[in-house]
Each structure stands twice: as C-alpha cells, then as structure tokens.
Write a structure and sequence with these properties.
Elements: E1 8-19, E2 25-49, E3 52-64, E4 74-77, E5 80-90, E6 95-102
Antiparallel strand pairs: 1-2, 1-4, 2-3, 3-6, 4-5, 5-6
C-alpha cells in the first residue's frame, strides 16, 4: 500500500450512549481514529422501496490496518456518515477494505 494513494481523510466512529438535558439516554458517536484512505469505488444504486425510489451511495475505502474496526462502527467522509457493511483484511494486518453505504 503506497502512501501516495491514501489521499482521502476519513473518521472512524464508535456508537455510545449519553444523557440529554432531561436525563434520557440518547445515542452518541465518538471518534475512534482519523485515518488516511484511498477511495476505491464510488457507486450509487437506485432502488424502489415502500417509500418510493431510494438512491443509496456505496463507497469502498482502503486504509492501513486498525485493530478493533467492526460492523458496529461507522465512517464519516466529507461531512456524511456511512454505515460499514463489509470489512476485508488485506494481507496479514497490512490494511483494510471497508465497504460502506450512506446513512439516510
């Protein structure tokens, strides 16, 4: 993995719980790491669902290995949140390919 190809900046976030002003538990996201990554694939897909036509963005990022990344985490890229739907390890702890789908 060449460092020159890692030209995008992504943030890995982990889900947590916090309390709002009224003491009610709410879902929060905390940053785990900010990483350099390579954008391998950028695709969009139109699907027809119960609420009409839905366009979903699918991205694949290649990054250096980071221990503890799971499907429970999410990626923030260019101000948008992406759910991690697939993780592939490259070599023996050399890197990761993250397949992501835009949230919302």
């Amino acid at each position: 993995m060449r460092a020159g190809n890692l030209d995008r900046l992504i943030e890995i976030q982990r889900r947590g719980t916090g309390l709002d002003l009224y003491g009610t538990p709410v879902e929060t996201w905390t940053a785990v790491a900010t990483m350099r990554a390579q954008l391998l694939k950028n695709a969009s897909d139109n699907q027809e669902g119960a609420r009409g036509e839905i366009t979903s963005a699918m991205l694949t990022f290649r990054m250096r290995f980071l221990d503890g990344v799971t499907l429970e985490n999410r990626v923030t890229y260019q101000g948008q949140q992406f759910e991690i739907i697939g993780i592939s390890e490259i070599g023996r702890r050399i890197g990761l390919d993250l397949r992501c789908e835009r949230v919302g």
